[in-house]
Amino acid sequence: SEKEQDMVILHHVVEVEFPNNQPCENHRATLLDFGRGQYTAMALTVGIPAAIGALLILRKSVKSYGVLRPMDPEIYVPALEILEAYGFNLVEKID
């Protein structure tokens, strides 16, 4: 209906424990995105990151081979920059 809002919410909470009885930290990351025009929020938040991955491979920006997780700076740094240019903003907080 016209009163419904198309959106995706992604929220991660990671508890970080340090050695030597240092206080724990909670790292939070939240993404809130809304559909744009004819594209749903789900289509955008799934399709654009997949397209960015393909783009990085085609540009030969990624030197590694095989099944890769986006934990390597050669992947996540340019990917996050492109996502931000598309209007995706991840809000991060440490408690």
Automatic annotation (TrEMBL):
<keyword id="KW-0472">Membrane</keyword>
<keyword id="KW-1133">Transmembrane helix</keyword>
<protein>
    <submittedName>
        <fullName>Lys-ketoglutarate reductase-like protein</fullName>
    </submittedName>
</protein>
<keyword id="KW-0812">Transmembrane</keyword>
<dbReference type="InterPro" id="IPR032095">
    <property type="entry name" value="Sacchrp_dh-like_C"/>
</dbReference>
<dbReference type="InterPro" id="IPR051168">
    <property type="entry name" value="AASS"/>
</dbReference>
<dbReference type="GO" id="GO:0005737">
    <property type="term" value="C:cytoplasm"/>
</dbReference>
<keyword id="KW-0560">Oxidoreductase</keyword>
<dbReference type="GO" id="GO:0019878">
    <property type="term" value="P:lysine biosynthetic process via aminoadipic acid"/>
</dbReference>
<dbReference type="Pfam" id="PF16653">
    <property type="entry name" value="Sacchrp_dh_C"/>
</dbReference>
<feature type="domain" description="Saccharopine dehydrogenase-like C-terminal">
    <location>
        <begin position="2"/>
        <end position="87"/>
    </location>
</feature>
<feature type="transmembrane region" description="Helical">
    <location>
        <begin position="39"/>
        <end position="58"/>
    </location>
</feature>
<dbReference type="GO" id="GO:0004753">
    <property type="term" value="F:saccharopine dehydrogenase activity"/>
</dbReference>
